[in-house]
Amino acid sequence: MFSKIKRWLRGRLNKQKISTRPEPMVGKMHYAPLISDAVPLYEISFTKGYQGILLGEIQSEGSIQYKYIFAVYNLEKELCFAVASEENTMASLERNNSHFLGVFPGDGHRNFGADNKWAELENFTPAAIAITKEQLNIVEKLD
What we know:
There is one protein chain. The protein is of the alpha+beta class. The chain has one domain. It has 2 helices and 6 strands; from the N terminus they run αββββββα. Strands 1-2-3-4-5-6 form a 6-stranded antiparallel β-sheet. It starts with a helix and ends in a 7-residue tail after the last helix.
């Protein structure tokens, strides 16, 4: 299953790279994580035709390094929203702030705070899904 998702995702990354440049590059996103490759870890369907893919082993192209990204595609298969675990290069482990929880609503970036827990899959994933559901006013689709 993941190999199929990876091929689907790789086709998207090869055709239109996610970019942080101001002009729209992918779907409705004007500002998104700049990556060249990633491994799909989990896929989830939402109402209104949204599809979420949790990405790991991310190869960043910019100065910001990502541990995980929860990428959300709309019904037209365009990237429209993302939540990311972003490495905090100024972090001190004693301060409990190794990673930021960043949200990309399409037109910019919002920081939801720094914490070591955003580097852990079991903490990042439910937070990313909850933020996605709240921001896009959607729920998980039951099969």
